[in-house]
Please model this.
Amino acid sequence: MACVLGLGLSAESMAGAIQANGNLEDWGLFTNGSTTWTPSGNQSGKSYSYNGWTIYYAVEDYTSGNGYIGPGWGGQAYDAEALYVTWDADNLYIALVTGHDPNTKQNEKNNTYSAGDFALNFWSGANDKTYEFGIRTPHLENQKSSTIPGNIGGFQTDVYQTTNADWLKDPLWGTGAVTSLNTTGLTPLPTKATMSIKEGPNSIGQGTGRHWVYEVSVPKTIFKDFLKPDNELNISWTMNCANDIITVEDDIPTIDEPPVWALLGLTLPAMFWRRRRSAKR
Model:
């Protein structure tokens, strides 16, 4: 019966697992010394296929110096380099590569800005630019030490259902982009996300310099009615100065879960055969 039930599993549910551990090899990235942003030979410009996954991505790699990265300045230290998104039957997975140090403390007087939160915008038809969910990253506004080792590695983090009024906006460049959640008055959802932050090798991507990898796993049950087959999802991330904003657009997947009647049609003959064998003993 287990074999028969297995016939109903989708390709993605049978693919190699993606772990929220800060390593991108399970996304097909940076393996065997490769520094390319997607596995060779299967890019479409918007997505690529790897190990049974359809992975949506955006790459905005700034490669040298301290110059303009768009819409602001800051070079490698404020570079949002690449963002990846995929799904399976249970979870949404996000991976971010950035040159922004997650231990940067928020201090506008010293012109330093900490990391922003992941902003999720579900929409259908025309993009409504409404961010319905936010995934919290570590924030260091009130930290006194220069490095917070607990922010590096795996941990559980809060997810919020939001409106645009719950978000802080780009303070410098006039883009209106959302940066971090203003959690005053907000209650996190009961289910948390798993997040890992890990420093990556200097050779990632086109240039050199320090890099960090954020990886997130979020249970799909959090999104409930927003998971409609005709919906789209935009995921954005930036730092609190919005020097560099990166966004991925992906399709809400239709996971090929077998309907109940199909499972009964497959399993009932097996049950009947087993019962007949028992009766003959």
Notes: Residues 260-280 form the longest helix (21 residues).
